[in-house]
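Batch 3, record 17
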Amino acid sequence: MANKPVTRTASRVTKKRVLSGVHFMNGDEAIAEGAIAAGCTFFAAYPITPQSEIAERMARRLPQVDGVFIQMEDELGAMAAVIGAAWGGVKAMTATSGPGFSLMMENLGLAVMTETPCVIANVQRGAPSTGLPTLVGQGDMMQARWGSHGHYEIIALSPASPQEAFDLTVKAFALSERFRSPVLLMTDEVVGHMYERVEIPEEVPVAPRRKPKAPPDGFLPFKPEEDLVPPMACAGDGYRIHVTGLTHDERGYPAMDAEAHDKLVRRLCEKITRFRDEFTWYEEVMTEDAEVLVISYGISARVSLGGVELARAKGIKAGLLRLITIWPFPDEVIRKFADRVGGLVVVEINLGQIYREVERASGGRVPMRGVFHAGGRIHTPEEVLAGIEEVLECRS
Amino acid sequence: MPIVKHKPKPKPEVLPGVRHPLEKYLRTDRLPHIWCSGCGLGIALSSFLYALEELEIDPDSVAVVSGIGCAGRFAGYVRLDSYHTTHGRAIPFATGLKLAKPDLKVVVFSGDGDLFAIGGNHFIHAARRNVDITVLCVNNFNYGMTGGQVGPTTPIEGRTTTTPYGNFEHPFNLVYLAASAGATYVARWTTLHARRLKESIKEALQHPGFNFIEIISPCPTNFGRRNKLGDALDEMRYYAEKAMIRHGADPAAAEVVPGKEFIVGKFVDTRKPTYLELYRKKVEELFGR
Ligand SMILES: Cc1ncc(C[n+]2csc(CCOP(=O)(O)OP(=O)(O)O)c2C)c(N)n1
Ligand code: SF4
Ligand SMILES: [Mg+2]
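Prediction for the assembled complex:
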C-alpha cells in the first residue's frame, strides 16, 4: 500500500466520481472529494478562509460529474439553496467558516424542521467575529450544537486528518440520508490546510434516499416509519406535498398548537438520539491501563497524542480518547471511562466548550483539567503534559 | 364602527359531480385560508392557478416556493410541490431546487418585504444570473403578517405601525429594480387586472429566464386602514382610476406615488441565455463536445 504511486488529479479533467488511488491533498480537498465520491452533485457556498479550497475544488470537479457548483451571494443564500437542491432530489452540501456558519443558522433550523438531508462543513478559525481568518480555532463547537433557535438534535463529526476528512464526509452523507437530517462536519483550519496522504478506495457507495413506497393518494409525508424517520417525496416525484418550517402535522400542514409542537420536536430529537449507537465513533489510544485520560477532538487530539506519549515516557499512565462524533455527545462513553480513570484532561482550542460536556457526562466523578487557549495556534505536547501532571497532582 | 351581524348564508348548492376548475390545484382541505376578507392575495392566487389551468401545465411539473408573510402562505394552499421556507430565502431555495431539477417549473410567490427587504440581495443576484424562475411579488406596501410595519415599498408619508408620523424613507420602484438587475421579463399589474395578470403569468411561465411580476394589492386590514384608503372595493376603484396600462414603458418612470396615476403593463420582455444554458455550455466546452 505504502508504495502506491501518488496520482495527480486536481487539474485533470475526468468524469470519474471516485478518484480511487493514493493522493497528496489537504483536508479541504479531501472533504470535496469525499462529497463527490459520496454522490454529492450540488454545492452552494460563499468563499471564506479557510474553507475556500473546498469551494474551489468543487467548482472544478462538479461540472465534470454532472453536478452543479454555484457561488451564492452570501451564506444565507448558500444554505437555502442547499435545502432547495435536496428537495430537488440530489445530495447537496455547503461549506463555510465561523462568520458564514453564523449566517447559516436560521436555515440550518429549516433543514432540521423539514427533515432535509444535507451536509455542512465548518472549517473553524479563530473567533468570535472576524477573529483570526487564517488561523485555527475550535470555538464553534457549541454553536454547532445550539446555534439555531429552538430545541433540536444534530449530528456533528470532527476529523483529525485529511484522510479522515474524506472518510467522514462520505459517512456524513450516509447519515444525512439515514436520518433525513443535516449533518455537520466540524473541522478546523489546520486539518483543512494540512497536506497528507489520502487513499481513496476503489468504490464508495452512494447512500440511497428514502423514497416513499406508498402511492401519492393519501400519502402522509411526515408520518414516520418505525425508526421515526419519514420517507421523503421530492419535488416532481408526483406526491405534491407541502413542506414548511412551521410546526406541522403528519400531512405536512401547519399545526399551531402545543401538543402538535411537542410531538414533532420530540420525534425530531428522538429519531437521532434513539439510534446514536449507530454512529458514536471514537478512537482510544493507550487507554487500557490509563490513570489519566486525555479527551480531545480534531487537530487538538493529534497534538494530545504527543502529550500522552511524553507522559508515558515519564512513567505516567496516560491515554487518549479522541472523539470523532461530537454531537450527540457520547455521554455513555465518557461515563464508562470516568469510572475507570483517576483524572480527565480536555484539550481544545476554545476556553472550555466540550470540557463542560465532559464535566456534565462524568458527573464530577473524577478531577478534571482543561487545557485551553482561544485560538490562533495548536497546543504543544508540553502543554498537554502539563495538564496531565496537574490533574495527577490534584488527585494526590 | 358598528359590528354588523351577518345572517348565516345558506350553503351554496353544489351539483353532484361538478367541480371548481381550480380544485385540482388547491389544498381544499386547508380551506378556509387565513387571509382577511378584502385582501388581494386570493385574487393573485387564483390568477396564478388559472394560468396553470389554461396552459394545461402538469401539476407534477411545477413547484411553488414562498418566504414568510401573508403572501408567504401561498405555498400552503396550492396542491403542488410547495415549500414554505424562511423569511427572505425563497429565491435562493428556488435557485437550488431549479438547478437540482431543471425540468421543474419553479415559481416564487411572496411579499414585498420578504423579497425586497430581508431577501433583496437574493433577488438582484438571481436576476443577474438569469436563473430560470418566475417571481411573483404581491406588493401591499407594508408588512401585513406582522401587523403593518413599514417596508421597502411603503410610499413617502405612508402610515404604518413603525412610521407613526409618516414614512420618510425613499421606497423602491420594483419594476425598475428588477429591470436594472437583469430580469428578462418584467410586468406590473394590480389585483383589479385579474385577467391581464393571468395572461402575464402565462407569458412568464413560458418565458425562459428570470421573470418578475409585481402584483399591487390591497391590505385593507393594515395599510389600507391606516392610510384611510377605504375598504378593498375603494382600493379597486382607485386602481381603476389611476392605473395606466402602458406596455413597454420606461420602468424608471414607473414609480408608484399615492394619489397619482401609475403605470402598469409589461416593461421588459427579452431573451438572454439562462444560468443553466450557460452552465451546460461550459460543461460541453470542458469535454470538447
Ligand atoms: C428572520 C425573520 N425576521 C422577521 C420575521 C417576522 N416576519 C414575518 S412576516 C414579515 C414581513 C412580511 O412582509 P411581506 O413580505 O411584505 O408579506 P405580507 O405579510 O405583507 O404579505 C416579518 C418581518 C421572520 N419571520 N423571520
Ligand atoms: S394583513 Fe393584509 S396582507 Fe395580510 S391577509 Fe390581511 S389584508 Fe391580506
Ligand atoms: Mg407586504
